[in-house]
Design a protein that fits this description.
Blueprint lengths: L2 E6 L5 E12 L3 E6 L4 E4 L2 E4 L3 E7 L4 E7 L5 E14 L3 E14 L5 E4 L1 H10 L4 H20 L21
Length: 170
């Protein structure tokens, strides 16, 4: 594992931290892989992750895409974190998770918006600026368009990916 993923909440507290393998890096995009069986640390404690994750990070985009499989590579879902301040260096990818998540299950066409209640609670508790709130809701709409577009990597064909193979351009 040659990279670390470290996400925080708006107030700087830990959201998730775990080791990942670098799959692809360009000036604008980073792709990492978390192998089932690796250690995870979060606001919920520490445990061993039981699922495979392929994650896409873009500079200047207000979201992070996670593709998740069960341990035996059965497709589970595309999971998109609405995020800010996505950045990386030679060892760590970082971002601020803003609670709003969009989920597209492998066996469905329904896009589910999750954690609106957490977003609202944190918006008030941590005093999100109005411009951030507006940007988050615009990002939700952008991600819905991406998930409906059928464009890679936001389509279900991404579930064909396995370690050692390349990822599709977006």
């Amino acid at each position: 594992m040659d990279f670390s993923l470290h996400s925080t909440k708006f107030n700087g507290s830990l959201h998730y931290r775990y080791p990942v393998r670098l799959i692809e890096q360009t000036d604008e995009r980073l792709v990492t892989y978390f192998e089932a069986g690796g250690p995870v640390e979060s606001y919920r404690g520490k445990w061993i992750g039981e699922k495979h994750f392929l994650s896409f990070f873009w500079r200047g985009r207000p979201y992070v895409l996670h593709v998740r499989w069960e341990n035996g590579w059965e497709p589970e879902f595309l999971y998109v974190d609405i995020a800010t301040n996505v950045r990386w260096d030679e060892q760590t990818v970082r971002y601020v998770d803003l609670d709003l998540d969009l989920i597209l299950r492998a066996d469905s066409t329904n896009i589910h918006l999750d954690d609106e209640d957490e977003f609202e609670a944190h918006r008030v508790k941590w005093n999100y600026p109005p411009s951030l709130v507006t940007a988050c809701w615009a990002a939700v709409e952008e991600v819905k368009r991406q998930l409906r577009s059928g464009k890679k990597p936001f389509d279900l064909s991404i579930f064909d990916w396995r370690p050692g193979s390349t990822v599709a351009d977006s």
